[in-house]
Structures are given as structure tokens and as C-alpha cells.
Amino acid sequence: MIETGCMVALIILASAFHKYIDRRYKGSIPSDAEERIMARMNGLEQRLTDIQDVMITLDEKMNRS
Hints:
Number of strands: 0
Number of helices: 2
Order of helices and strands: HH
Distance between the termini: 93 Å
């Protein structure tokens, strides 16, 4: 009887460990939605950088005048 209880407990622990490992490493692979969001963020970052460059250039031109 005790052996059966130990086996059931071992199976439950093994299942919990497997789910923990699966969840932990599943998040490291980006999904399609995450990839699209990252692509959009990179595009926005590039646009902001371009706007910043234009603003710096305009500021320099205004300071020279």
C-alpha cells in the first residue's frame, strides 16, 4: 500500500517537473505575434531616430542664423 502511494507521488512529481520545464523553455521561443510586434517596434525606433536627426539638424541651422 505504501509502495503504491510512493509511486503515485513520484508520478505526480515527475508530471509537475515536466510541466515546469516545458513552461520555462516555451517562453524563450518568440511567437508570430511577438515577432510582428518586435518588427513594428524596430520600425518605430528607426522613425524616431530619423526624426531626432532632423530636429538636431534644424536646431543647428537655427543656432547658426
